[in-house]
Amino acid sequence: MSHADFTMPTNGDPQALTGLDARRSVPAMQLGKPGPDAAQLVRMLQSAVRVPDHGKRVPWRFVRIEGVARSAFGDRLAQRSRERDPQASDAVVEKDRQRFQHAPVVLTVIVQQGPDAKIPAGERLLSGGCVCFALLQAAQALGFGACWLTGWAAYDDHVRGWLGVGQDEVIAGFIHIGSVRQHAPERDRPDAATLLTDWIPE
C-alpha cells in the first residue's frame, strides 16, 4: 500500500487497543530461534519509523547484530567486561558474553544528538525511544517476542566504537527479537486513572 492509498481512520478502531493492552516484554533469555527474516525485519522497521519526529529529522538509525556476529560481539563484550573490572567473577564475565546470544536478532537503535538550530536533542532522543517501543509492538504483531535493553554496554565508549556510534550519537537501546520459548507472566500494571490530574487555573 502506498502513502497515497492510506486513509486516516475517522471512526476509530477499538480492536487496535488490543495489541497495546497485550504488549509485554519477553526476557532476552527466553527468546530463541527462529527470528525475523530480512523481509519481516524491514516490515517491523517500516512501522517503527512512523513515530513523532519533530522537524522530520529522522534522527535514528539501526545496526543489526545477527548470526555469528552475536558470538563475536559477546566475546568482545566479555573481554571489555574484564577490562572494566579486573576483579569481576567468571560468572559475571560469562553473563556479559551471553547477553547477545539468546535472541537471534538484536537491533541497536542509535539516535543523533548533535547541535540542531530548531530541534532540541531531548526531543530527538524521545523520538528514538518511540522507535524502540514501536519495534516491540511490531515484533509482537508479527508473532515474535522482544525486549528493550541497555545496560553498561549502551554507554561504554569501546562498545560504541565497535558499533560505529558517533560522538554526537547515543544508543537508545538494544532490541532483542526472537521466538518466545517461555511465555512471560503478566505483571502488575499501574491504574492509569490514579495518575491523571487536571490543571485548574487559579
Q: CATH top level?
A: Alpha Beta
In N-to-C order, the SSE pattern is: HEHEHHEHEHE
Based on the structure, what is the oligomeric state of the protein chains?
single chain
CA radius of gyration is 19 Å
Number of helices: 6
The main pleated sheet reads as: 5 strands, antiparallel
Detail the poorly predicted runs.
none
Helix fraction bin: 25-40%
CATH superfamily: NADH Oxidase
Remind me, CATH topology?
A: NADH Oxidase
Shape: globular
Strand content: 15-25%
Q: What can you see in these coordinates?
A:
By secondary structure, the protein is of the alpha+beta class. It has one domain (26-183): 3-Layer(aba) Sandwich (NADH Oxidase). 35% of the residues lie in helices and 17% in strands. Strands 1, 2, 3, 4 and 5 form a five-stranded antiparallel beta sheet that branches. Helix 3 packs antiparallel against helix 4. The mean pLDDT is 94.
Key attributes of the depicted protein:
single chain; 202 residues; alpha+beta; NADH Oxidase; 5 strands; 35% helix
